Amino acid sequence: MDYFSGKRVLVVGGSRGIGRALAIQLARRGARVCVAARGGDDLDRVVAELHTAGPGPHGRVAFDATDAGSVAAARDGVRDALGGLDVLVCGSGSARCAGVFDAPDDDFRRMLDVNYLGHVNVVRTFGPELVAQRGGAICLVSSLAALMPIYGYAAYAASKAALAAFAESLRQELKLHGVRVVVHYPPTTDTPGLAEENRTKPPAVWAIESQSGWNKIHSADRVAASIAAAIERDQPLGLTGFDSRLLATVMRLAPGFFRRMTDAEVRKAVAHTARAAS
Ligand SMILES: NC(=O)c1ccc[n+]([C@@H]2O[C@H](COP(=O)([O-])OP(=O)(O)OC[C@H]3O[C@@H](n4cnc5c(N)ncnc54)[C@H](OP(=O)(O)O)[C@@H]3O)[C@@H](O)[C@H]2O)c1
C-alpha cells in the first residue's frame, strides 16, 4: 500500500509552487490533504484540483504563518478538514535577493519572520498533536542556499540555515516521542515564488547564474516528488537530483575547493556586469 494512502496531511504554503505540486501528488497517492496559505482564492483553486486528484476529503485553512495567533486560530479548521494529523509540511516562504549593504533595512527581519519564525509558529501549533499521538512526520522546507550560501542571498540563506538548525534540534527532541522530522533543501525551482524573487535580482546575480555551470532550474513537480520521498524514507537531509547531491558533497568534503570555485564565478560575473554597465 502507498505510504501516503489515508494519511492526513497539512501542507502550509500549499496554494502555489512547490507546496501546491506536493499537495496534488499526495492527494493522487490517496492522502487527505489540507492546504494552508494567506490567500483565499489560490487556496480555493487548489482544493478544486485536490478533489480531481484524489478522493479526499480535502480542505483549506487561511493563516499568516508569521502571526502565531492566526496560526493557532486555524487549529480547529484543520481538525474539521482532516479529522486529525499525520504529516505536517512547512513549505511556506519567500526569497529576496540583494547585497548586504543594498538590502532594504527590514529584509533581514522579514526573511527571518517568513522563513524561520513562521515555521516555528506552525510547528509549535500543530506539533503537540503528533507528540500526543506518538507518531507522524514533520517536513521543513529549507533551501540549498542554507547548505551553500551564495552571493546576494545573505538574508535569505541565513533564515534558511536558522530553520535547518532548528530542525535538527527538533528532530532529536521529537524522535523520543515517535515523531520524525525531515528537512528538504530544494534547488532553484520554477515557481511563482522564483518569478517574484527574479524581480529582486541585481545584475551581478543574473550574471553569476547565467555563467555558472552549477545552476540548474528544476520543476516544482520534481522537487515535490523528492520531498514526498524524503518524508516516506525518513531522510533527515533531503535533496533533489544528482546536481544538488554533488554540490552538497563538494561543499561538505572540499569546502576550500567550493569557495575557490564560487569566488572565481563571482569575480568573473561582477567584472562582466561592470563592463556591460560602462
Ligand atoms: N522556488 C525556489 O527556487 C526555491 C528554492 C529553494 C527553496 N525554496 C523554498 O520552497 C518553499 C516554497 O517556495 P515556492 O517557490 O514554491 O514559493 P511560492 O511559489 O511563492 O509559494 C509560496 C507559498 O507559501 C505561501 N506563503 C507565503 N508566505 C506565507 C505566510 N506568511 N503564511 C502562510 N503562507 C505563506 C504562499 O501563499 P500566500 O502568499 O497566499 O500566503 C504560497 O502558497 C519556500 O520555503 C521557499 O523558500 C524555493
Mean pLDDT: 95
Question: What fold name goes in the CATH topology slot?
Answer: Rossmann fold
Classification by helices and strands:
alpha/beta
- How many structural domains? 1
The CATH class is identified as: Alpha Beta
Please give a quick description of this structure.
With 278 residues, the chain is an alpha/beta fold.
What attributes does this structure have?
single chain; 278 residues; Rossmann fold; seven-stranded parallel β-sheet; binds NADP nicotinamide-adenine-dinucleotide phosphate
List the helices and strands and how they pair.
Blueprint: E1 8-12, H1 17-28, E2 32-37, H2 40-53, E3 59-62, H3 68-72, H4 75-82, E4 87-90, H5 107-132, E5 136-141, H6 144-147, H7 154-175, E6 179-184, E7 189-190, H8 192-198, H9 203-211, E8 218-219, H10 220-233, E9 237-238, H11 241-253, H12 255-277
Parallel strand pairs: 1-2, 1-4, 2-3, 4-5, 5-6, 6-9, 7-8
Helix pairs in contact: 1-2, 1-10, 5-7, 9-12, 11-12
This protein binds NADP nicotinamide-adenine-dinucleotide phosphate.
